[in-house]
Specification:
With about 775 residues, this protein is mainly alpha-helical. The protein is built from 15 helices and no strands. This is Protein phosphatase 1 regulatory subunit 21.
């Protein structure tokens, strides 16, 4: 991660460096162009200076010539003034001289005219030179102003670049510090990840071995126990119990409950509609209380009186269908057997509607033929007759699709599984059509009732009956709308739930209703078997305690080799103790033999007259030896000395005490020796574990030192790159500052030259003006 960020930073720096190089080249080119322009301007200034000096010299020569000519004119004028009085005196004698003076005067006039023209031409040249000088001066001033603005812009660019470079340097230093911190954190994460990967690899290896073993075991069990694959054939696959989807069952039960509520509302509205229609026939157009109604209406009333026997079964069939959908069943079209019963009840109701439709149409025609019927009422009756035909047609269409949906539970070949979705879509369309027809009936019947209420012969009983019929029609309309919207909202779920069935195989569907029934029986048996197998789980170790035990087990210092060595050493000790036990048992047997011999010898002595005194001593010796033979270790540290009742002196009792003391001491020393051996083995195991830990720590230390070296090398390399980039930026800045200084110097020189030219031009103009 850090390396990618550093590479990104280096790429950005390289891009900025390339941009700066390009800007530097542009600046160099601009400086070179300005230098060339300044050199050209210098040459132009030199040429102008030379031409100006030539003009100055010409002006000086011309002024000198003009002065000479002016003096000569003055002299000539003086001579002419002097010659005029003389001419008056010598008019007669001076005709010839007057002719000469006129000739000279004409010559002088011509010469003077030429000098005047030449002076005028020189004045024109001087004016043109002055105008050209002013124009050049204006161009140079504008050029100077442009160069000053460019220099200011370049200086601003240089200042911005220096500021930007300083900010980038500071930013890079901060980024470097952050990257160093991040690199350290990433190194720690990398170490943790390495440890985790090692653990995961071990776990993966163990899992792979475990899963491979399980796979082999399961394959062997399948090969041995499974005779065939029952999901390959649809007949066998249909008998498999599908996975229990409790959510699906609860959803289907909820939907069936909503549908039952809608059907109950619809049944109530239909009962009211037929009953109030029967009452209306008894009232209008002829009241049965006043006069007899027509035979047609009598028959129609008789049929309408039987409506409950056809409408009530619809509610009962839907109720049975709702009760058949439980949490433990599998609800698909193949298992909903009660849908067939509902379809039959709906068929019987359709037959009832077909039976009463002609009578209803004839009754409406009879109303139209009555004298009380107006044209508007007749039009409403015709519209209602059309609406009744549409209602019967919609019910027939709905019954057809419901019968198709009931086929999979009775005749699996009657409806293909691919047509389930289209049938459900058509059911929704039929319900919407039923809602539209009921809206038309409600609209037309409300208009008919309003017209009848305006008749003069309309009774209160007729008005009440019409209101009841209209309320039942409104209830039918709202019920049909709710049912249509309900089915449209759940149509997608119905279509998606068709795939719910047995396990996926060659043909994932129920083949026949008997197969579905068998599957449900198998499901019940499987549920009963699982309940029978369910037993209270034994108490397990708490999770926190198990984690603590696992940590203790993992952090234990005793390795497997140490434990094996301890077991080996304990086995060697046991073998040594067994050998010592056998040795002491042999010693005990020898001691018994010696005791028997001693007792025999004492018995022989007892036969002598002094044997009665030694009887107690023999008994005490026998008891002591028997106790020593029963316990090879000579017993415990707290063995009390046997109180001697014999007649032997205190020397024997003292020997017994000494013997018991040393035996207890030997037992204590052996126990201490065993304890020291166990502690030494434990310490040895701990030392081995610590040595292993030390070796692992040294290895990790070596790896860490290598990583630290690499990190320090990377840091030094980054520092070198940073210093090189910094130096390059400083060199570029110094070069740019040098160029700017040189440009400022050239500009200052140009300004000085322009100032000198201005002063020279002003002096020349003053001289010309004075001249």
């Amino acid at each position: 991660m850090a390396s990618t960020e550093l590479q990104g930073k280096y790429q950005k720096l390289a891009q900025e460096y390339s941009k700066l190089r390009a800007q530097n080249q542009v600046l160099k080119k601009g400086v070179v162009d300005e230098q060339a322009n300044s050199a050209a301007l210098k040459e132009q200034l030199k040429m102008k200076d030379q031409s100006l000096r030539k003009l100055q010299q010409e002006m000086d020569s011309l002024t000198f010539r003009n002065l000479q000519l002016a003096k000569r004119v003055e002299l000539l004028q003086d001579e002419l003034a002097l010659s005029e009085p003389r001419g008056k005196k010598n008019k007669k004698s001076g005709d010839s001289s007057s002719q000469l003076s006129q000739e000279q005067k004409s010559v002088f006039d011509e010469d003077l005219q030429k000098k005047i023209e030449e002076n005028e031409r020189l004045h024109i040249q001087f004016f043109e030179a002055d105008e050209q000088h002013k124009h050049v001066e204006a161009e140079l001033r504008s050029r100077l102003a442009a160069l000053e603005t460019e220099a200011a812009q370049h200086q601003a660019v240089v200042d911005g670049l220096t500021r930007k470079y300083m900010e980038t340097i500071e930013k890079l230093q901060n980024d470097k510090a952050k990257l160093e911190v991040k690199s350290q954190a990433l190194e720690k994460e990398a170490k943790d990840c390495r440890l985790r990967t090692e653990e995961c690899q071990l776990q993966l290896k163990n899992l792979h071995e475990d899963l491979s073993g399980r796979l082999e075991e399961s394959l062997s069990i399948i090969n041995e126990k499974v005779p065939f694959n029952d999901t390959k054939y649809s007949q066998y696959n249909a008998l498999n119990v599908p996975p229990h989807n409790r959510r699906h069952q609860l959803k289907m039960r909820d939907i069936a409950g909503q549908a039952l509520a809608f059907v109950q509302d619809l049944v109530t509205a239909l009962l009211n509609f037929h009953t109030y229609t029967e009452q209306r026939i008894q009232i209008f157009p002829v009241d049965s209380a006043i006069d007899t109604i027509s035979p047609l209406n009598q028959k129609f009333s008789q049929y309408l009186h039987e409506n409950a026997s056809y409408v009530r079964p619809l509610e009962e069939g839907m109720l049975h269908l709702f009760e058949s959908i439980t949490e433990d069943t599998v609800t698909v079209l193949e298992t909903t057997v009660k849908l067939k019963t509902f379809s039959e009840h709906l068929t019987s109701y359709i037959c009832f509607l077909r039976k009463i439709l002609p009578y209803q149409l004839k009754s409406l025609e009879e109303e139209c033929e009555s004298s009380l019927c107006t044209s508007a009422l007749r039009a409403r009756n015709l519209e209602l007759s059309q609406d009744m035909r549409k209602m019967v047609a919609v019910f027939e269409k709905l019954q057809t699709y419901v019968a198709l949906l009931a086929l999979p539970s009775t005749q699996p070949d009657g409806l293909l599984r691919t047509n389930y979705s289209s049938v459900l879509t058509n059911v929704g369309a039929a319900l919407h059509g039923f809602h539209d027809v009921m809206k038309d009936i409600s609209k037309h019947y409300s208009q008919k009732a309003a017209i009848e209420h305006e008749l003069p012969t309309a009774t209160q009983k007729l008005v009440t009956t019409n209101d009841c019929i209209l309320s039942s029609v409104v209830a039918l309309t709202s019920g049909a709308g709710k049912m249509a919207s309900f089915f449209s909202n759940n149509a997608d779920y119905f279509i998606a739930s068709l795939s719910y069935g047995p396990r996926a195989g060659a043909a994932s569907r129920f083949v026949s209703p008997p197969a579905a029934a068998c599957m449900l029986q198998y499901k019940k048996r499987a549920a009963a078997y699982m309940r029978a197998l369910r037993k209270p789980l034994p108490e397990s170790v708490p999770y926190e305690e198990a984690l603590a035990d696992r940590q203790v087990l993992l952090s234990s210092t005793e390795s497997r080799a140490g434990l094996a060595q301890q077991v080996q050493q304990s086995l060697e000790k046991i073998s040594k103790l067994e050998q010592e036990k056998e040795h002491w048992m042999l010693e005990a047997q020898l001691a018994k033999i010696k005791l028997e011999k001693e007792n025999q010898r004492i018995a022989d002595k007892l036969r002598s007259p002094s044997g009665g005194q030694l009887a107690g001593l023999a008994q005490d010796n026998a008891a002591m030896v028997n106790r020593a033979g029963q316990d090879a270790a000579a017993t415990k540290a707290a063995v009390e000395p046997a109180q001697s009742t014999s007649l032997v002196p205190d020397v024997d009792s003292r020997e017994d005490l000494i013997k018991n003391h040393y035996m207890a001491r030997v037992v204590e020393l052996t126990s201490q020796l065993q304890l020291a051996d166990s502690k030494s083995v434990h310490f040895y195991a701990e030392c081995r574990a610590l040595s292993k830990r030390l070796a692992l720590a040294e290895k990790s230390k070596e790896t860490l030192t290598e990583e630290m070296k690499l990190a320090s090398q990377n840091i030094s390399r980054l520092q070198d790159e940073l210093t090189t980039t910094k130096r390059s930026y400083e060199d570029q800045l110094s070069m740019m500052s040098d160029h700017l200084c040189s440009m400022n110097e050239t500009l200052s020189k140009q300004r000085e030259e322009i100032d000198t030219l201005k002063l020279a031009g002003k002096g020349n103009s003053k001289k010309n003006k004075s001249r």
